[in-house]
Amino acid sequence: MKQSKFPFILTIIVLIFFWLPIIILMFNSFNASRFGSVWGGFTLKWYDRLFSDSNVWRSVQNTAIVTIVSTAVSLVIGSLAGFALHRYKSKFQKVHMGLIWVPLVIPDILMGMSLLLFFISIKVPLGLFTIILGHITFCISYVAVTILARLQDFDYTIVEAARDLGARGWTLFRKIYIPLLTPGLLAGAMLSITLSLDDFIITFFTAGPGSSTLPLQIYSMIKFGTPPVINALSTLFLMLTFLLAIIYQRLSRRNS
Amino acid sequence: MKISRINTEEKLITFPSFFWLLLFFLIPTLLVVLISFCTADPYGNIGKGFSLSAYSEIINISFLILVLRTIKLSIFTTVICLSIGIPVAYAMARMEKRWQQNFMLLVIIPFWTNFLIRIYAWKIILHPEGFLKQFLVFIKLVPESASLLYNEGAVLLVLVYTYLPFAILPLYSAAEKFDFQLLEAARDLGSSSIRSFIKIFLPGISVGIVSAIMVVFIPALGTYIIPDMVGGPNSEMLGNKIAQRVFTDRHLPKGSALSTILILAFVIPPLIQLIIRKTKKTSKNSPMGVLSK
Questions:
Q1: Residue A196 and residue A71 in contact, taking contact as beta carbons nearer than 8 Å
Q2: What residues in B contact A19, CB-CB < 8 Å?
């Protein structure tokens, strides 16, 4: 059977298009020349300069706090939401589903803007606390949708068997639901971590003085700083996301 | 007795997310609309009175140009993403299962990197001292004085780079379920390959196409960082104006008025869709269903 080669060739070109900028960036983090166009020899000086930058370290700490707290909270709230959506089919849940869904499709700038105005109106000072509240808000929806998808292939006969054997309430939850749902919970947590680590716009709108996270730091370095240091920072950041991506992939593959 | 117990349980597990999203999503969004009708005091806070003055800048030719540019760039991005994404989805769906998974990973992994870093990578490539510019000048495709950065072309390129994977995902998952024997049957019956591609394959993946349009067009409308970083003063989009009003001018009602326009852009199309669906009553597959997978 004769098939056009065009779609396949286009796919290869698209993959090159996707990967090229990232590979160039990584190479440049070891480039002694300030500009990417010429190779000035191998160097680690940009990494050296990065590690001695105290602003970067403060932003790494802030990022860690924001990511850990918002993932923990959104995991609990989001899982309960996914559970409720799966279990009940009432009118109330339809409204609930809408509330979960809309944040997934609106642009970040609207959520950032609305949270900023909300915090200003109720006179909450902007800072790490407001950033965390914002991150929880958008992570809940993603966790809920992930958990809901996992629950769709959940084997209820096991729950029924446990009920027949007398398991109720908390025991049922702890002994049956939690172990069966662990892969889903981990996938939800990983998704929430990656989203929280990556978020710029909502953080930008809800941040106050001294609460820069790593993406905000990267932004100000791109706008006002020394480019090669960003290359080094980006490469490290890439490594971290790749690592998380691999873990996430493993988890979701094991589950399926 | 039993029903009431289930009801309390339902309320109990629904309450946290429901309350949270009500407080931190729905109320703040309504607040944006409310504040757009307020006045601003000289200190950058929200004033006491109500007025329509924040909307005054909207009745302005330069704002109209900005909105048209935002819509134009979003449509271009969507069209380009579809015309690249559909053949890619087709090619991937026809591969062996093992290869399909590997290619999918190759598509997704670059986009697990930080959004800003990806845009910055393009800034380096398009930089006047960067190799792409040097190369294009060398092969005499562009003059020495041309700038690859800070124009609409650069914004469009990075928009496509950012949203193409989001288009490929739903297109691929629709194409994967497509029965390719239909194309062979069409060929046996004498249809040309282009004709059967258009008449059979495209309708077959229509659910994927609708989702792809939604996940590209909607975020593109609200994009802010891309024109901020690779665009110039003549390639600003609606998102830039909102950020400018909030952070540079500190005029919150004006920022809110612009955001309200954006909110309307999201409320009106689904409403129209809903009305059409209510009148037709032929809802089979909503695009949301594909997005949730």
A1: yes
A2: 106, 110
